[in-house]
Task: inverse folding
């Protein structure tokens, strides 16, 4: 579903690579957790996948489409929620969802059905006609999630999705991710909350200083580090510290 | 005062983007071509303005000298600077006091309301000093040189210059504070702000224009003699537009006499009184209005929206156009800045109707006597559409206004050509409606040929569509995405200035061609030439839109979360 081959990105004026020689393959029907400390290169990687940044070298393909050469086709398969979703403040919730629905050409009855479903789940149907500027941070996050799911994306990409969600919404959202992959779709998300990743991810990748230092199921990571009983948090700390000492 | 100074420095940094410029140009060494282009592009234009005003000072001084009132140029410069400050200051103040994102950060800090207000006003004032210095300094310096003015003149000039923008900004602030006090307690805050703001501008500008054209019903020669015989009569006549400018001019011109000192005291005194009134009002009204506005933003409609009947499916370009219009028209700052031209043009046309002066006093009335040739009407109307495309700033700031929200459009499966088409369509719908509404009273008052007006509208739409496309591409090339105050995307955006320069040059060229055709009696060629120009603009847009836009859209790195 998602393939990154030898992807590197260095910001202009920066001394080191934000992402370097990244190879990653995320398969159909899995929840993939992308972990790493602050500044590791998670958001830069996500921005390159969704077309917000251009890789200096390497290629990113989504559902078989090269993000750089066939951006429209690639984007049709993606639903994206950034870590801090800034949404047009002067549109109403419904107007925002209609804008997204039009771009993804979501058929009217399907659109209405999905909007109803997600907004009822997030308990915010009452606010649909209000300007987004009147929404709380959490409500904007939920609206962004609804917008990203409106076209039932084959690849659902989220940058730190749990930030801003109340416990009830976070619980619904975890179930929603699982239901989404059960339909044959894929979820790729970055997070700091290792507990969440441990609970719901089929596989995880750990990025540190722009390089992928580990990738696999949690059991595979445990085996590789020869710490069979370690929690993901312990593994994460060991792997990133190890990498620091090598670096 | 230390706290105000510290806040002022931070606001100034944000306003002029010093840290951002240092980061981009010095640390990252990127977009280094920008300052070069700015200097090369604006330098000659600025030089021409300064040179022109330098000459105005000479001519004004010589003419004034013959009439015994050489310091009329001082009053002219002061009045112009104060009116410009009042007009633009109102937008800046409204935006900085009420619509800026930094307020959410400043309100919880332990600042008194007058401290926030003073720091914000000082930051706006600093920007205004730069603007008015272009008008005032060439004239005042040249006057001082020609009049061989002594040290008192130069000292007084500095004092007057420092005080010059204060009073208009105080008036602008008072108007803005009172408007927002009313708007923020209403449920339709944005709508009340827009209507109230437009009304205030119409009253302020309308009264200035009215005062300027409303002369006594006397023989013009008699009137001139009367103004000349009266001490400072001409200066006073100029100063009617903004009375304190007369005190400023007299204070400078008679800096060596008690009469001048008295005028200076009057000018500085009224400025100080204005400042004190603002201080009093700010303590009582400013924060209350601001906080009431923030409450108002959270009010929710009780009516539940029926999703099944409102989730429409629309073509992508139309959807983009609709969002472009909604996002523009729902922001009072954008509306007040972008649409004011559509209101002022008919206002300019209405003024002659309100005044009863004769033809010498009011030459516009000459236009009523002879019908304007139909092809000239056509050209003029088309030119109006073209000029308003740039004056409204809508296409030239279309990507900049997206700011941090641009990630939404960039992650949608929509090509840049579709995005551009939607944005141009949205901008053009506003432009066409604005122009047509403005043209109705103008057509009636100037008794324009209806066929010519309709023909001009059609050519104007074609002409302005091509130009809108090019201006949108200009904004795509160098969008200003990192703003805190949304109004900066319009008012502090160099793209808007470049658009005005480009369209101004085009308008000058078209106007010249129309004049040539008028003289040679070949006016039928005017619409043909305009249609050819429209085709050329459209072809250039198509070429650049294909060659450049795709690459730029993929490589944008600003405003991405």
Result:
């Amino acid at each position: 579903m998602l393939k990154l081959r030898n992807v590197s990105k260095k910001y202009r004026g920066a001394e080191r690579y934000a992402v370097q020689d990244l190879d990653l393959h995320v398969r159909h029907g899995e929840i993939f957790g992308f972990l790493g400390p602050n500044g590791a290169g998670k958001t830069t990687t996500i921005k390159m996948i969704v077309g917000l940044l251009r890789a200096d070298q390497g290629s990113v393909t989504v559902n078989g489409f090269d993000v750089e050469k066939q951006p429209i086709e690639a984007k049709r398969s993606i639903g994206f929620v950034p870590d801090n979703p800034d949404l047009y403040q002067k549109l109403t919730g419904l107007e925002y969802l209609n804008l997204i629905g039009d771009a993804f050409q979501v058929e009217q009855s399907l659109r209405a059905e999905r909007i109803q479903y997600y907004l009822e789940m997030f308990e915010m149907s009452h606010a649909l006609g209000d300007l987004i500027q009147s929404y709380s941070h959490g409500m904007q996050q939920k609206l962004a999630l609804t917008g990203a799911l409106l076209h039932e994306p084959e690849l659902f990409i989220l940058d730190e999705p749990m930030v801003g969600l109340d416990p009830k919404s976070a619980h619904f959202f975890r179930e929603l991710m699982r239901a989404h992959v059960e339909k044959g779709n894929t979820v790729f998300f970055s997070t700091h909350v290792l507990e969440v990743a441990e609970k719901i991810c089929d596989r995880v990748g750990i990025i540190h200083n722009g390089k992928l230092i580990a990738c696999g199921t949690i059991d595979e990571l445990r085996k590789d580090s020869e710490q069979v009983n370690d929690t993901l948090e312990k593994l994460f700390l060991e792997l990133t510290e190890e990498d620091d000492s090598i670096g | 005062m230390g706290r105000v100074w510290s806040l002022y420095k931070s606001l100034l940094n944000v306003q002029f983007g010093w840290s951002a410029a240092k980061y981009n140009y010095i640390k990252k060494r990127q977009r280094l071509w920008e300052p070069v282009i700015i200097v090369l592009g604006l330098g000659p234009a600025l030089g021409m303005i300064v040179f022109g005003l330098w000459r105005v000072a000479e001519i004004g001084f010589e003419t004034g000298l013959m009439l015994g009132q050489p310091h009329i140029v001082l009053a002219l410069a002061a009045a112009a600077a104060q009116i410009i400050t009042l007009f633009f200051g109102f937008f800046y103040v409204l935006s900085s006091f009420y619509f800026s994102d930094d307020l959410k950060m400043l309100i919880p800090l332990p600042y008194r309301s007058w401290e926030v207000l003073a720091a914000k006003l000082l930051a706006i004032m600093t920007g205004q000093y730069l603007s008015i210095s272009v008008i005032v300094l060439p004239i005042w310096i040249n006057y001082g040189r020609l009049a061989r003015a002594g040290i008192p003149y130069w000292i007084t000039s500095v004092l007057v210059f420092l005080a010059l923008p204060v009073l208009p900004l105080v008036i602008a602030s008072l108007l803005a504070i009172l408007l927002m006090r009313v708007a923020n307690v209403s449920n339709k805050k944005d709508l009340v702000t827009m209507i109230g703001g437009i009304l205030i501008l119409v009253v302020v500008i309308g009264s200035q224009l009215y005062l300027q054209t409303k002369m006594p019903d006397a023989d013009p020669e008699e009137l001139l003699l009367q103004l000349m015989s009266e001490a400072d009569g001409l200066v006073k006549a100029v100063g009617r537009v903004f009375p304190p400018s007369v005190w400023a001019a007299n204070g400078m011109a008679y800096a060596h006499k008690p009469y001048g000192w008295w005028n200076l005291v009057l000018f500085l005194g009224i400025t100080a009184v204005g400042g004190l009134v603002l201080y009093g009002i700010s303590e009582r009204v400013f924060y209350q209005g601001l906080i009431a506005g923030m409450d108002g933003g959270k009010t929710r409609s009780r009516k539940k929206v029926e999703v099944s009947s409102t989730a429409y499916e629309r073509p992508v370009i139309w959807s983009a156009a609709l969002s472009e219009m909604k996002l523009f028209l729902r922001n009072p700052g954008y509306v007040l800045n972008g649409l004011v031209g559509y209101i002022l043009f008919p206002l300019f046309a209405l003024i002659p109707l309100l005044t009863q002066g004769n033809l010498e006093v009011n030459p516009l009335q000459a236009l009523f006597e002879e019908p304007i040739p139909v092809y000239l009407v056509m050209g003029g109307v088309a030119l109006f559409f073209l000029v308003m495309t740039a004056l409204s700033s809508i296409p030239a700031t279309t990507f900049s206004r997206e700011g941090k929200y641009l990630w939404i459009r960039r992650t949608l499966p929509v090509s840049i050509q579709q995005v551009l088409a939607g944005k141009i369509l949205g901008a053009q719908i506003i432009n066409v409606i604005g122009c047509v509404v403005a043209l109705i009273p103008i057509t009636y008052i100037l008794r324009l040929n209806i066929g010519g007006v309709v023909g001009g509208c059609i050519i104007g739409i074609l002409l302005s569509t091509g130009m809108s496309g090019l201006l949108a591409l200009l904004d795509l090339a160098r969008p200003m995405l990192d703003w805190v105050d949304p109004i900066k995307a319009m008012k502090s955006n160099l793209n808007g200035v470049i658009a005005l320069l480009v369209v101004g040059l085009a308008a000058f060229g078209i106007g010249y061609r129309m004049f040539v055709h008028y003289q040679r009696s070949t006016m039928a060629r005017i619409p043909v030439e305009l249609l050819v120009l429209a085709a050329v603009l459209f072809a250039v847009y198509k070429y650049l839109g294909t060659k450049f836009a795709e690459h730029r859209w993929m490589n944008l790195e600003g405003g991405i979360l």
